[in-house]
Write a structure and sequence with these properties.
Radius of gyration: 19 Å
CATH architecture of the largest domain: 3-Layer(aba) Sandwich
Number of helices: 7
Distance between the termini: 42 Å
Structural class: alpha/beta
Number of domains: 2
Number of strands: 10
Strand content: 15-25%
Strand order of the largest sheet: 3-2-1-4-5-6
């Protein structure tokens, strides 16, 4: 494919705000259409920023033959219908993390993407991260041996600008919301099969709908682990 990839964006909230500058400066993609399920004014505003157009419906983006990639920038609990429709239409897909709020939805989306023969990229901390790629090169080179222990602590400030981030039925809790970045990095850097895992979750502050403290220990082949 020659020229820029033409993308349509479904979801014009906080994630798009964080990525707008990168999209504007990219020499590889061009935003053509935007749709907001909750605030059409946001779609209009970003359409002006990108020199694009606001769509009347998600179908207008998904079924547009000129759109190469559909970016699904909505919360995880609202994502499945758009991913399934985009896969059925044969579009390549980019989604934010986590892919879904529960395992059944994630499996359904994964199966739909595989059956359609399209790609669905989920953005995590490892995605195009030069620091993680440098670590990968070091541990893959053999000069320093293999990674044996990955440890990451994260005190995460929960967002207060929406009503779903602390709802375990919609976002899965703090591990699903934030620490998936580091689980993804740990698995990538280890490069070995997972052979065991232990998960702990508790609520110490009693001020959130979800547990506020979560810990995962992942065991890999050859005695390695990630905390």
């Amino acid at each position: 494919m020659s020229g820029k990839l033409r993308i349509g964006i479904i979801g014009c909230g906080d994630f798009l705000r964080l990525r707008a500058a990168d999209l504007l400066s990219s020499r590889q993609v061009e935003v053509k259409l935007l749709y907001s399920p909750v605030n059409s004014a946001n779609a209009e505003r970003y359409a002006e920023i990108f020199g694009a157009k606001a769509a009347d419906s998600p179908e207008a983006i998904i079924n547009d033959p000129e759109i190469d990639v559909v970016c699904v920038f909505v919360p995880p609990f609202a994502r499945k219908e758009y991913v399934l429709a985009a896969a059925k239409a044969g579009k390549q897909i980019v989604a934010t993390k986590p892919l879904a709020a529960d395992l059944s939805d994630a499996r359904e989306m994964t199966e739909a993407v595989e059956q359609a023969g399209v790609r669905c990229g989920v953005i995590y901390r490892r995605t195009n991260n030069p620091v993680i790629e440098a670590y990968k090169e070091i541990f893959s080179g053999g000069e320093f041996g293999k990674l044996a222990l990955y440890k990451q602590d994260w005190l995460h400030h929960y967002p207060t600008w929406n009503r779903w981030a602390t709802d375990p039925q919609k976002n899965g809790g703090p591990f699903m919301d934030a620490m998936l970045h580091n689980l993804n990095a740990a698995r990538y850097l280890m490069g070995r099969r997972v052979v065991g895992r232990v998960f702990f979750s508790d609520d110490h502050t009693h001020s959130l709908a979800c547990d506020d403290t979560q810990f995962l220990k992942v065991d890999f082949e050859q005695g390695a682990s990630a905390h």
